[in-house]
Specification:
Residues 83-109 are annotated as: Disordered. The chain is mainly alpha-helical. The protein has a domain at 2-77. It has four helices and no strands. It is rod-shaped, with a radius of gyration of 27 Å.
Length: 109
């Protein structure tokens, strides 16, 4: 059970770090929490059997890094919606320019 918890914790921690770096940072919380839970289970089993906890510490380190990065991105990333009036004006201007270019073309038979 301890080895399975360590492996699952490590896999979820790596997935959480990858998702935290990508634009899908909001999805990093799910594997981050799962990695923390499996790391905690492995830590309690290792503590009970008085075994080494070095790999479990790596799981916790990766989990903390991913959750910190995802939280930072969630707080400080701003999604701005552009001014639609400006976009409509530039679109209208481009249409007018395209019409003028088409009117200036001389077609010869």
């Amino acid at each position: 059970m301890k080895k399975a918890s360590i492996i699952l914790g490590l896999i979820f921690a790596i997935i959480a770090v990858i998702l935290a770096v990508l634009p899908l940072y909001k999805l990093a919380f799910i594997p981050g929490v799962l990695a923390f839970i499996f790391g905690l289970i492995a830590f309690l089993k290792a503590k009970k059997d008085a075994q080494s906890t070095h790999l479990i510490q790596v799981v916790f380190l990766l989990t903390i890094i991913s959750l910190t990065l995802a939280t930072y991105k969630a707080i400080y990333s701003v999604s701005e919606v552009g001014d639609t009036k400006e976009l409509e004006q530039t679109e209208q201007k481009r249409k007018e320019e395209a019409k003028e270019e088409l009117e200036d073309i001389i077609i010869t038979d």
